[in-house]
């Protein structure tokens, strides 16, 4: 169960996310000229409730690449909704393991559909705690692809390539920190070479 | 000077109001309630004219009997057959004090009477309760008249 | 000297007034949101709305009625939950409505209304609703806006895919959300789901004359979860489509275990074929108890009958009656378009929206183009029955409604939006966010053959920061969008009762012309009615005291009652003698352990009251009925059990001389 509660990370999340809300757009009801707020629940002012999966990621210094990618892929609103979600959250180091230039390529506007595809391959719509994973289990991801789980000696691996290194509960699901980026099998091995 | 200002301001106000109204003029097409509700079981009285009523002697006992039934079901709660005022006036001698046409209109179309008839309005002031529409049609009201006449000693 | 200052004050005043007027012009805040379209939701005081919106109350168990486009709440119709406000489930006359084979059940969870149809179009006669928890279907009479009938669904663990109605209101249906063991062998380990649990879909016939419901037949199916349903129409009339999930047949942690397969099913039922099998005697009578409750409008009283058997069809004995079509990822919505050709499946977890073609389904059946079978029921090949898929429509598709121009509107829970797309070419045309997390949606006439279009209404699960906060629980809400242009435009937010699931909207003139105004007192057949003051009385039957009471503006007859004793049960049978629209009277008595009565003009209702102490108890009219409403009151004197106070009652009797009568009947317990 060590992997399940990574206290330093949680503490960091709690600490950092306190600074998260300064970018809120004004939506004071007595201002008749307020334009419609872009996005959705991510704009709700709430410093008391548990953090959602997006805010958990934002609060982690190890996930700045992922957070930037989620913003670029316009998935912040969806992931701030009720879910429930399980997000497999590759660390910055995991993104760094991709061939040079891959991330930069994906962050370009014309590659947004590919970025969305990859990121949606990291999300499923149910809140899966670490102990729910069983060896050989299949998880249907939001992009339509599947992730296969293997469990050996308490180590949970996804698609045989990424290992869950920490698990953080969020208000709308679970964030499992992984050490490699999952690549949609739909596009197979040639996927990365396209960038 | 002052007057001018006031009227000017009123004018501006009015102009704003008008523009307001036009801006918000998006009502859905009006619905004709009368048309929609005309098949309802509820009976709205129409004004009964003097010539519509024929009173005969002796009393028609069949009318008296059915008039009494209507009284007991729909009137008795508020009207006694004596002079005693309960919610509304007692019925004793009502046929001697009021024209049958007045009574029948009061029974079948109380809203019209309370709007237009000074005697009806006076009664409302005394009784403090609008006489309810008891869904009594013209024929039933005619029966009630016969029962009232009987109550007043006519034969 | 003072004049200039006066003047400036005056001018300032003018300016302020001008500003106020200007501000009054602008619909506050909404103008910017809706680009000036907010006025489309404005219905001026005294004007009527265009549509009635019948909205499920979810866990309130009731159905609410709103006006569209104003979003004004008109009525909450009590259906499956008691409603002390209206005395529903508390009055002796209405208690039987909530009777079940489990006894009196005071609450349920109403998810889906279904409005009656003739030739696939709204006819404004009845609204049906499902009870999700203790499986039932209710019929609401749209003349009175009251629940007229409730039938329990046996052999079902939970009734979600219900009451979806067929093209001529031949049937409403009920599919098991929870499959359960049934028949003789019900005490089995839960882990034997695959072996012992069965599903059923029930077809409840609706009498075309009076709406009376009867379970015509049930079809036994493999144990899965049926989620939603829609009837075929036009060319697909005679078919019913049920979405189902948990084809994995998991009995625990469905969140994980029911999402293992890439595809679950939509079940297509040829109910005309089923009717033939019923006629041919293929059905088997199964012994099972269920309640059937009917409200008699002339008696103003419900009766509950316990039925003892249903007719069960087994697909094994009835070939060509039931087929499964593969549908990606736990399908939820399963909606047929106005032509009846297309069936839209919405997999909650799917990345596409599959659209099935009825013509192709028929061809696949004829060619036996099967992909194996599922517990003996043929599975049609996905590709063979597919019209096409809407690609990347959004996240978490749930439900689809239609307009009259060949467009579909699908709600997306996860991405919190409505997406408009073309049914034929499957191209996404427009998308608009909802605030937040939409469940169902409603286009007026959307499930019928002739949608009225004009609006789409979103029913949202979450309203964080949309309304003034009210503690941890916030109101759930609806959002109204116009759809008559190319772009959907948000024009109104309005709060809803309970939790709204599905809703239907119907043009006002189809309903309002039939609305009952009064119950004719001459037609009141309630056995306890006091038809006129001559019948007002108090009677003792053992330890029961029956008060036959009348009410009219502004008094009860009788209003002074003595001779009630501790240990008595007092039944107040109150008849409202009024014959005027919108003049109900209420009745309440101090210390009553139930609720008030709310009695419509010409109606009789009964409240049972068990006094718990000696004393004089006030009773009064609870519905502000007239200028003398506060005078509409009375007293009941309760004496000790053995007292010799005679049973008396009166109205308008003057007080006895001080000290005379009082001495005579002072209570003397024995």
Count of discrete structural domains of chain C: 2
- Report the count of strand segments of chain A: 7
Question: What do we call the CATH topology of the domain at 7-14 and 50-133 and 165-181 in chain A?
Answer: FAS1 domain
CATH architecture of the domain at 7-14 and 50-133 and 165-181 in chain A: Roll
Oligomeric state of this protein: heterotrimer
Order of helices and strands of chain A: HHHHEHHHEEEEEEH
Biggest interface and its residues per chain?
Answer: B-C, 41 and 53 residues
Distance between the termini of chain A: 39 Å
Q: Calculate the mean pLDDT score of chain A and round it.
A: 80
Based on secondary structure, the structural category of chain A is alpha+beta
Q: Structural class of the helices, strands and pairings of chain C?
A: mainly beta
User: Could you list the spans of chain A in which at least 5 consecutive residues all have pLDDT below 50?
Assistant: 1-37, 186-195
Key terms:
heterotrimer, A: about 200 residues, alpha+beta, FAS1 domain, seven-stranded mixed β-sheet, 8 helices, globular, disordered N terminus, disordered C terminus, C: about 675 residues, Methylamine Dehydrogenase, Chain H, Immunoglobulin-like, 2 domains, 9 helices
Explain this structure to me?
The complex is a heterotrimer of chains A (195), B (155) and C (670). Residues 1-37 and 186-195 of chain A have low confidence and may be disordered. Chain A starts with 6 loop residues before the first helix and ends with a helix. The longest helix of chain A has 11 residues, at 7-17. With 195 residues, chain A is α+β, with helices and mostly antiparallel strands. In chain A, strands 2-1-7-6-5-4-3 form a 7-stranded mixed beta sheet. Chain A is built from 8 helices and 7 strands. The radius of gyration of chain A is 17 Å and the shape is globular. Chain B has 155 residues and is mainly α. Chain B has a domain at 56-151: Cytochrome c-like domain (Cytochrome Bc1 Complex, Chain D, domain 2, Orthogonal Bundle). Chain B has helices at 2-23, 33-36, 61-75, 94-97, 100-108, 110-116, 118-127, 138-151. In chain B, helix 3 (61-75) packs across helix 8. The longest helix of chain B has 22 residues, at 2-23. With 670 residues, chain C is mostly beta strands. Chain C is 10% helix and 43% strand. Chain C contains 9 helices and 45 strands. A 10-stranded mixed beta sheet of chain C has the order 6-7-8-9-17-18-13-12-11-10. The N and C termini of chain C lie far apart (91 Å). Mean pLDDT of chain C is 92; it is low at 1-35 and 659-670.
